Amino acid sequence: MAIQRCTSDYLKGVYDVELESFNQYDVYSLELLKFLCSFCGDYSYVFIDNNEILGYIITCKDDDSAHIISIAVKRKARRRGIGSALLCTALRLLERGEVKKVYLEVRVSNSDAIRLYEKAGFKIVETLEGYYGDGEAGYRMEITDRKIAKEFCKNYK
């Protein structure tokens, strides 16, 4: 098992995870994933086990914040710490002081993801009405506390 930087070699596997993890309104095209993995490649990763991509995270960094654009894990690989390990690739930017906050958007109905993010120290800072293509609202969640990020990630080096 390994976390590797997202490159074009992994796009098919990332797309497979994307298709399995999100509904039709939320799936990114292969072309958009290729762009994001290239443009945000320094902060985007895949989790590989036995040559299979089980999860990925795409994180883009600007001056003082990191935006988790997308994070997903295949159903069969969930609840094994893969999502947490991937999440920590973004949280380490905060932990190291490279950014002041890490943020993301999540469907209000995605209670499993919300629980993970809250466990990691994220807080809901905004409700985004009609954010998703099917009209569902989303939450914007962020974390700014470096100590909490470090504590959450201590087991995911």
Please give the structural blueprint.
Layout: E1 2-5, H1 11-21, H2 30-39, E2 45-49, E3 52-61, E4 65-73, H3 82-95, E5 101-107, H4 111-120, E6 123-128, E7 138-143, H5 146-153
Parallel strand pairs: 4-5
Antiparallel strand pairs: 1-2, 2-3, 3-4, 5-7, 6-7
CATH superfamily: Gcn5-related N-acetyltransferase (GNAT)
Mean pLDDT: 90
Biggest sheet architecture = 7 strands, mixed
- Main structural class: alpha+beta
Strand order of the largest sheet: 1-2-3-4-5-7-6
Radius of gyration, taken over Cα atoms and rounded to an integer in Å:
15 Å
Count of individual helical segments = 5
- Give the % helix: 25-40%
Number of strands: 7
Amino- and carboxy-terminal Cα gap: 13 Å
Which term fits the overall shape? globular
Strand content: 25-35%
Secondary-structure element string: EHHEEEHEHEEH
In quaternary terms, these chains amount to: single chain
Are there runs of 5+ residues with pLDDT below 50, and where?
Answer: none
Describe this structure in words.
- With 157 residues, the protein is of the alpha+beta class.
- It has a single domain, classed as Gcn5-related N-acetyltransferase (GNAT) (Aminopeptidase).
- The chain contains five helices and seven strands.
- It has helices at residues 11-21, 30-39, 82-95, 111-120, 146-153; strands at 2-5, 45-49, 52-61, 65-73, 101-107, 123-128, 138-143.
- Strands 1-2-3-4-5-7-6 form a seven-stranded mixed beta sheet, sandwiched between helices.
- Helix 3 (82-95) packs antiparallel against helix 5.
- The longest helix has 14 residues, at 82-95.
- It is globular.
- Keywords: Acyltransferase, Transferase.
- Pfam families: Acetyltransf_1 (PF00583).
- One of its GO terms (cellular component) is NatA complex.
- It is an enzyme of class 2 (transferase).
